[in-house]
Amino acid sequence: MDSRNGLTIPDDQIQSFFDSAPPLKDRAEIRESLIRFIEFNSQSSGVRRVVCVTSGGTTVPLEQRCVRYIDNFSSGSRGAASTEYFVKAGYAVIFLYRRGSCQPYCRALPNDPLLECFEVTDESHIQVRESHSEVVKGAIRDHHAV
Question: For the chain, which domains are there?
Answer without folding.
Answer: 2-104 (3.40.50.10300), 109-146 (no CATH)
